[in-house]
Design a protein that fits this description.
alpha/beta, 2 domains, two-stranded antiparallel ribbon, 6 helices, HAT_RTT109-like, phosphoric diester hydrolase activity, Altered inheritance of mitochondria protein 6
Length: 254
């Protein structure tokens, strides 16, 4: 993904015996396939080489990202939590600490009123706080516990992949997603759609994309056809026409 300049990576994560593993299914997990080994350590190494003066400059304003030719491009790392989200959450926060302490995580700072009483039970964020951008933005999806994302203290540096058809703010959910099967006609592969139905599918998709964009949120659709290749490409074509920001793909070069 990085070699192709793609600024978003999604990884399926499981917590097993206190260790974060990367893999789509339980049978894919093995001792050498940990989140740290496959993703976090390589990213930390890249950022350390790109930011040799981080220890003396923690302002967060002078960082370089993972892309040499686009040094201010943020990378979005999507953590698709597959196991119990509440159990995995503390381990995820701990795993991100090396990035956090170097100022390399995009962070949302709450407005003063959010913590007015100092009691987490009274916490309320209206989305009017301020962002400190970093080279890495973490977005939780799957079984990510939204309550934990919402009430992170003292600031939010893990964000949420919200349902596309609901109302959110970028402070909580910079991305909103929905499964491809919106309705009966959208469940059909594009090549099977008569022209009028194809236009209807694009119109419906575009409406959701535009609503997300109006709130400053990127739109994503997942679960679309992967095979045969002609169907997969037609689905991507419809999504592009509808103004979708992110499309899921396994063969990134394609």
């Amino acid at each position: 993904a990085l070699s192709l300049g793609i600024p978003c990576i999604e990884v399926d994560v499981w917590l097993v015996d206190g260790v974060l593993f990367a893999g789509h299914e339980p049978q894919d997990l093995s001792p050498d396939r940990t989140l740290e080994r496959l993703y976090l350590t390589p990213l930390l190494d890249i950022l350390s080489k790109a930011n040799p003066d981080t220890e003396s400059d923690k302002s967060g304003k002078g960082w370089n990202g993972v892309f040499a030719r686009a040094s201010k491009q943020e990378l979005m790392l999507m953590i698709d939590i597959k196991s119990d989200g509440e159990a995995l959450w503390p381990a995820l926060l701990d795993a991100l600490q090396p990035f956090r302490e170097r100022g390399w995580l995009t962070t949302y700072h709450y407005p003063p009123a959010a913590n007015a009483t100092g009691n987490i039970a009274d916490f309320h964020d209206d989305g009017s706080g301020e962002f400190t951008l970093g080279p890495l933005r973490i977005v939780g999806t799957g079984n990510t516990p939204i309550g934990r994302v919402y009430t992170q203290q003292p600031a939010r540096d893990v964000f949420y992949d919200a349902p596309l058809k609901a109302e959110w703010t970028p402070a909580l959910a910079p991305m909103a997603s929905s499964k491809w099967l919106l309705s009966s006609y959208l469940s059909l592969p594009p090549y099977a759609l008569p022209p009028a139905m194809r236009k209807g599918a694009i119109k419906e998709l575009r409406r959701y994309s535009e609503e997300a964009h109006a709130r400053g949120i990127k739109a994503r659709w997942w679960g679309s056809a992967r095979w045969p290749a002609v169907v997969r490409r037609r689905v991507w074509e419809v999504q592009r026409e509808a103004g979708v920001d992110w499309m899921n793909a396994d063969d990134l070069a394609e």
